[in-house]
User: Fold Serine hydrolase from Allosaccharopolyspora coralli.
Amino acid sequence: MSGNLLPATERALFRRLAVEQSETRTPSVVAGVVRDSELIWTRGRGRVRGSEPTRNTQYRIGSITKTFVAALVLRLRDEGLIDLADQLDDYVPGTAVGDRSIADLLSHSSGLGAEPPGTWWERVPGVGAQEFVDCVDSDAMRAAPKHGFHYSNTGFGLLGELISRVRRRDWTEALELEILRPLEMTRTTLSPVVPHAEGWAVHPWADVVHPEPAEDAGAMAPAGQLWSTVDDIGRWLRFVMGDSGEVLHPDTVTEMRSPGSVSDGDEWLMGAGLGFQLWRHAGRRIAGHSGSMPGFVAMAMADPNDKTGVVFFANSTAGPRSSLATDLLDILEEHEPRIPEPWTPSLDVPPDWLPLTGQWFWGPTPYVLQILPDGLLDLSPWEGQGRSSRFRPGRDGTWVGLDGYYQGEPLRIGRDPQGEVTHLNLCTFIFTRTPYGRDAPVPGGSLDWMPAREVL
Assistant:
């Protein structure tokens, strides 16, 4: 299946998929590529019950489940039922992590261990909610400093229980009512529904396989229980990119994609937002999640700026490499880079916005303010170094920062008695039409400029 891709592009995508299935000796793999609002390509390789897998074949998606749990938590926050700064004890008391915030759990920075105490939870029937909560004692904590990144499946088990207690219904019921039905994701379920793949372990030194268990994880199900299809996760990737329907406001999805913790230092390549994994690849900032359970691996990632995403599923415990996803993105970009839409004049720019545009100075540093096609203002340094932000109009004549250093900060327009624009007041910083302009309230006063020879 393709969405008007060139034959060479389809062949290159399929070849990469086929190479991965062959080299990793995976029983079956299916992948899809999303661009804008369309699943533009999908193919399967290998066999599921004698047939090639399709976009409608279910696979276990593992930790991609966490992104759905996070969306349910953010819905509670947006409804005012919780705050991300609230402590877990406010809703699920009795654990050793009760003094950590909900945001800490979402961003894997609570200090909890990676796995719950006891038996390897992915391969045995799960325990009930209260038994699970009771086992998260001091032994479940790790020595890593609070707020440092440490991936925790246990934390998402606790978040699932938080959802259940605040909603007064099982988290799976909330998932069905609040996310799956509104987004028409009819093939995403807690247990497999035919047609679905079976999970296998492939022997490392012989071409034989062994069936893997697929137990109900009980209270740990929010960490990785769901099954889904390329079709459904293709729709979920559109959600990750901001096409969130009535489930969440796009600004909340943007918040979920913002780094909450990083795993590898100053120039990070991987980290965590609020329920999303984050990566940097070839100039892209990517959000999504990987997934694995016995017998299955999965990946779903999206580039919100390019409106492009990739999903793949495989039914092998040690299946395809995660690089398959970024390779498919790279192939699409190499073979069919986007052709820009033709420029057309805007028909609905309010006339009183035009005097805001043009060059401004923060002290002696030149900036440019322009109106974007989507009705936002963009304030960026003239030569590219400095703080950039976009702004959305508010109801009281101010503008509110959407990203960067000025996210959430008010931009106020200064005017003279005749109503002419004289300066911008951004988070107390005064931007003027000339460096330290005399007609604006610059703290400390404007400057008398003098030749350098007089001061050097």
In short: The mean pLDDT is 93.
